[in-house]
Design a protein that fits this description.
The structure holds two protein chains of two kinds. Chain A is α/β, with parallel strands linked by helices. Chain A is 42% helix and 18% strand. A six-stranded mixed beta sheet of chain A has the order 8-7-9-6-5-10, sandwiched between helices. In chain B, the strands form two sheets. In chain B, strands 8-7-9-6-5-10 form a six-stranded mixed beta sheet, with helices on both faces. In chain B, strands 3-2-1-4-11 form a five-stranded parallel beta sheet, sandwiched between helices.
Chain lengths: 300, 300
């Protein structure tokens, strides 16, 4: 079982495989650094698509041998995104990664109906996995990046993606908490309605391979003491593997807050695509980007 | 105690003080017959309100013994109901029964805002069935009053039914929320409400019972069916109370049980200050008697 973000890399190395990653608009110091690290470890081959002059000059500055990469020179970020997606769809790459390009432009290429990477009828969503020193295990969270206000079908898809990822980490029957402000059902909290429906679906086997409960507040989801104090009977029991958030506005500050104030680390991935898609904020550290690369190889 | 048949209700009223039943617009042969018999069997102490002369004539020609019975003479039908209702609200009677008046007219008077029998609860119909193919009696609600209850109304209907079963000695009655299938289906509203009711029960927002749903009728009443389908449920196969999705399903089920399965049935209206016996002309004499018996057993 993978218990830390560093162990993702160990698991990937055991696969003894080289994953080909196409990076769109790749002339970014942190992206190059992270990719270089993965290439050095021997599990990645990189296709860097971008402004080759800038790319090479960054490599020189960082003491990185640019000959380790296949470099494709393109004019702008839009073409870089299209090319990265095209190569991946064609099978010349296994994974596509966003470099310096804006997320919206990049996802536009990914989501293109004809040339994009979306699975038919799939929900595009994002699953993150967090390592938080004060929590006793890795915590999968969804969706901190893509869907602003998920409806029931999107929540079901989000849960499914998170379950799939947790299982890849070796958590056979992850405990999923569907998060709300309270554990009570209330018509004032529309999400609690979706949650009750999802729990029943899990009970009836319509959502598989998990133990699900919600609505639960964060304490009941992740803190055994609160369970004892509140006396709420829940199979998640303060031991959640997965948190499903009701909105982007709740999940995004959650993970950023943990990174800023609790030394949390996040790796994450877009789901709903034929091949793994790495989308990570341009401001993220080289280490975060490296974790995302390792995660994408694990999920490829 | 679990009631095996409707006769078991007698055990609940035996030995206790006889409940006072007030029959409104008592000049009705069918109702009088059942009331007189229930009096003879020591189940109730009736008070008759209505046209004294008509009451005497009916009893004379049908050999009903009403010696020593309290009769309040009021030939006007609506006024007689008003007297009966006021008797109940003044705690002079424990059960209200409908005589020669239409149900809507009676209910209008029952719901009078000044001196009616309102408690703030929704009124609902509760029927108790005995069929020789099930191992105990089971209740069905609502087959006659609420046409297409929404979630809030369903909660009220369940609470009424559970309250009644609690008074009949069921500590944690098993409630099945009926659907056409046991799976949650977004296109079938009844299955969604069922999921919500189950969750509210888990969270102690609906108490004193165990709720599961959606359950299809076969899963609700047959453990074998439930096991065959792999449904894990505390309720399946052992249902005490079946919640109907709407009146059309409920009414057809009620009538098919009576006509095809030769079920015995007792029914009352719940949600007012006291149980109301509101049988229809087409109910058998036995059903009217059993309904009085149920009202006596369920009265506080």
């Amino acid at each position: 079982m993978i218990r830390t973000l560093y162990q993702i890399e160990e698991k990937v190395l055991l696969l003894k495989k080289k994953f080909r990653i196409a990076v769109a608009w790749a002339q970014d110091k942190n992206s190059i650094g992270a990719i270089y690290n993965a290439v050095n470890k021997g599990f990645v081959e990189a296709i860097m698509i971008g402004n080759s002059t800038d790319l090479i000059s960054i490599c020189k500055k960082e003491n990185i041998d640019e000959k380790l990469f296949t470099i494709i020179d393109v004019e702008n970020e839009k073409i870089a995104s299209l090319e990265a997606v095209r190569l991946t769809k064609k099978g010349d790459a296994d994974i596509v990664m966003k470099g310096l390009v804006g997320t919206d432009k990049f996802l536009k290429a990914v989501m293109d109906k004809k040339n994009g990477l979306m699975l038919p009828n799939a929900v595009l969503s994002y699953v993150g996995v967090m390592e938080i020193p004060s929590y006793h295990k890795l915590l999968f969270i969804t969706d901190p990046a893509v869907i602003p206000f998920p409806d029931l079908d999107q929540k079901i898809a989000m849960a499914g993606y998170a379950i799939e990822m947790a299982r890849r980490f070796g958590v056979e029957r992850p405990k999923i908490a569907l998060l709300g402000a309270s554990e009570k059902m209330s018509r004032h909290f529309e999400n609690s309605v979706d949650y009750a429906i999802m729990c029943k679906m899990a009970e009836r086997g319509q959502i598989k391979n998990c133990v699900m409960d919600g609505p639960l507040d964060l304490f009941l989801a992740c803190d055994k003491n609160s369970i004892a104090v509140k006396g709420v009977e829940t199979p998640v029991n303060g031991d959640a593997d997965i948190l499903v958030f009701p909105s982007l506005e709740s999940s995004n500050p959650f993970y950023k807050g943990l990174m800023l104030f609790a030394n949390g680390e996040l790796a994450g991935l877009i789901r709903g695509t034929e091949k793994p898609v790495i989308v990570i904020s341009r401001s993220e550290s080289e280490k975060s980007k490296y974790f995302c690369i390792a995660l994408s190889c694990l999920m490829a | 105690m679990v009631l095996k048949n409707l006769d078991d209700l007698k055990k609940l009223v035996e030995g206790g003080p006889r409940k006072k039943l007030v029959l409104a617009a008592a000049q009705d042969q069918h109702s009088l017959g059942a009331v007189v018999r229930a009096r003879e069997e020591n189940i109730i102490e009736p008070i008759l309100i209505g046209d004294k002369e008509l009451i005497h004539n009916i009893c004379l020609s049908n050999n009903y013994n009403i010696d020593g019975l309290r009769i309040v003479h009021e030939p006007d039908i609506e006024k007689s109901v008003e007297i009966a209702v006021k008797m109940v609200s003044n705690k002079q009677a424990d059960i209200l029964m409908k005589g020669k008046i239409g149900s809507p007219s009676l209910l209008k008077i029952v719901l009078n805002r000044e001196w009616g029998l309102r408690t703030g609860n929704l009124l609902s119909h509760f029927a108790l069935f005995e069929v020789n193919t099930y191992h105990k009696v089971f209740a069905v609600t609502d087959v006659a009053m609420n046409i297409a209850p929404n979630l809030k109304e369903k909660i009220a209907i369940v609470n009424n039914g559970v309250g009644c079963l609690n008074r009949l000695g069921y500590i944690m009655p098993k409630v099945a929320v009926l659907g056409a299938v046991e799976m949650v289906n977004e296109n079938m509203g009844a299955t969604l409400d069922a999921a919500l009711l189950s969750k509210m029960n888990q969270r102690d927002q609906i108490r004193n019972c165990i709720i599961d749903g959606p359950l299809a009728f076969d899963n609700a009443v047959s453990l074998e069916s439930a096991q065959y389908k792999g449904i894990k449920s505390e309720v399946a196969g052992d249902t005490d109370l079946l919640l109907m999705p709407d009146i059309e399903v409920g009414n057809v089920l009620y009538k098919s049980l009576v006509f095809f399965a030769k079920a015995k049935v007792a029914s009352i209206i719940l949600g007012a200050m006291v149980p109301i016996v509101l049988t229809s002309r087409s109910d058998s004499e036995q059903a009217k008697f059993d309904s009085i018996l149920l009202a006596a057993a369920a009265s506080k």
